[in-house]
Design a protein that fits this description.
By secondary structure, the chain is of the alpha/beta class. It is built from 15 helices and twelve strands. It has two domains: 119 residues, Aspartate Aminotransferase, domain 1, CATH 3.90.1150.10; 226 residues, Type I PLP-dependent aspartate aminotransferase-like (Major domain) (Aspartate Aminotransferase, domain 2, 3-Layer(aba) Sandwich).
């Protein structure tokens, strides 16, 4: 008797194991210093940890409201209005999510249907395209230009068709560390103004931006704000990526549809953590001081490799730094990245994984959200590479 296969057709036939998993496994196998994945190797503020314990001990251990604890939504609204001069109603325009990834996936799932086109700026974080594909959409790529990873807005405009349903941007940008300037956001606003295209703005590194520059959130631009989902991450901001805690803001007409999907995907998010964050966010220094905290780490890392053969432009935001290895070798980035792990015991992420057609920019991405001891060991090795 013949039986039908359990899986007749994959919904993601071209998706392989992520580069983060591949590199992470290799780094552990070879006991390499791991500057690949984007998480800190130091502890969060004990004040925040104690607030979570306090919330648990006070009995906040059952379901939170579907949209999130109102006190947390309220303080998020105040934060955004203070920083970006745009008011989001806590009742109908803010939702607490299981990290920014869930917010991004939910926004895409809510609005993308079969054959809808979504413009994705490449290199792009790897959660966007699978979500588009799962919902029957088509990713349309705009590749950032090297060496500075700037966007060609003429090309961007040319990629818009009558099938374009959504645009995804990410600023500060992972993996390149660049930021969209005020001029960039104005170009985007002007291009989208005559359309009904939805903007999905991934702003998880909103509070990690350097050299006195300003984060130009989509919330700052009236026409962008009225068509945008802005997604953010408490995990990135407060060194607690394992908590998977984020939020999403959008106009009520968009958020009402978002919540229809959200309620059946996760319903609600960790209650005691939400209670803790609602108190912790009342002190703005907890997020406003983050720029200086990470700039010290960036500058320490770059100063350590200043005499190496790597070329670099200091990252503008995020806790990632690109290093150009073209003076060391012209090999594919995945090859030198693997050898750097197996022979030199330092792990990084090859950028080709995120480019259109795996374009090799001769760049590796290093995460400097590490303690001083880890960075010292890494720069000592990197400085000796010939």
């Amino acid at each position: 008797m013949t039986t039908k296969p359990l899986i007749s057709k994959s919904k993601l036939p071209n998706v392989k194991t992520t580069i983060f998993t591949t590199v992470g496994d290799l780094a552990r196998k070879h006991k390499a210093i791991d500057l690949s994945q984007g998480f800190p190797n130091f502890e969060a503020d004990s004040k925040l940890l104690n607030l979570v314990s306090q919330a648990m001990n006070e009995g906040h251990n059952q379901y939170a409201p579907m949209a999130g604890f109102y006190g947390l939504r309220e303080i998020i609204s105040e934060k955004i209005e203070s920083l970006h001069n745009h008011f989001y109603d806590p009742e109908g325009e803010i939702t607490i999510t299981v990290g920014a990834t869930q917010a991004i996936f939910t926004a895409i799932t809510t609005f993308i249907n079969k054959d809808d086109e979504v413009i994705v700026v490449k290199p792009a974080y790897d959660c966007y395209e699978p979500a588009i594909a799962l919902n029957g959409g088509k990713a349309v790529y705009v590749q950032l230009n090297t060496p500075d990873y700037t966007i060609d807005w003429v090309e961007f405009k040319e990629k818009i068709t009558d099938r374009t349903k959504m645009v995804i941007i990410n600023t500060p940008h992972n993996p390149t560390g660049t930021i969209f300037s005020k001029w960039d956001m104005q170009q985007l606003e002007d291009i989208l103004k005559p359309t009904n295209i939805i903007l999905l703005s991934d702003e998880v590194y909103e509070h990690i931006i350097f050299d006195g520059q300003i984060h130009e959130s989509a919330s700052r631009f009236p026409d962008l704000a009225q068509r945008s989902f802005v997604c953010a991450s408490f995990g990135k901001t407060f060194h607690v990526t394992g908590w998977k805690m984020g939020y999403c803001v959008a106009p009520s007409v968009l958020m009402a549809e978002f919540r229809k999907v959200h309620q059946f995907a996760v319903f609600c998010v960790d209650h005691p953590v939400q209670r803790a964050l609602s108190i912790y966010l009342k002190n703005p220094s907890h997020y406003l001081d983050l720029n200086n905290f990470y700039q010290e780490k960036r500058d320490f890392f770059l100063n350590g490799i200043r005499l190496s053969k790597f070329k670099y432009k200091p990252t503008q935001g995020t806790y990632f730094q690109l290093l150009d290895f073209s003076q060391i070798t012209m090999e594919e980035d995945e090859i030198i990245g693997k050898r750097l792990i197996t022979e030199n015991k330092v792990a990084s992420i090859p950028i080709s994984s995120f480019n259109v057609n795996n374009r090799n920019d001769h760049m590796l991405r290093f995460c400097f959200a590490k303690n001083k001891e880890t960075l010292e060991k890494a720069v000592e090795i990197l400085s000796k590479l010939k």
